[in-house]
Specification:
Helix content: 40-55%
Distance between the termini: 33 Å
Largest sheet: 3 strands, parallel
Number of helices: 6
Mean pLDDT: 92
Radius of gyration: 14 Å
CATH class: Alpha Beta
Amino acid sequence: MEYISQTEAIPSDKPEIASATALAGEMLGLNMIYLEAGSGASVPVPIGVIREVRENISVPLAVGGGIRNRTEVEEIYRAGADLIVLGNECEKNPGLLAEACSVRDKVRLPE
């Protein structure tokens, strides 16, 4: 993304910038916000960033990149994600998708 857009990613230790950017996107008419650490990232989007963004937007929040196990899936849903995007790790561990769906169904707050 950085290469194509000629921009720099929002630093993972600056949740307030991620939140302000997400809110601006919502105000511009975006119907969903997607926080991505990058395909196959060494670590997923920090939980603090997810929480901060979730607290400041009203549209659905998707999170992806670097998610490798059930614990991370659960933490991300509990932090406020509405949707988790899984990719590379599902190729290595096909059971992760079923685990993620199970966690989603148990953790997601009733609407």
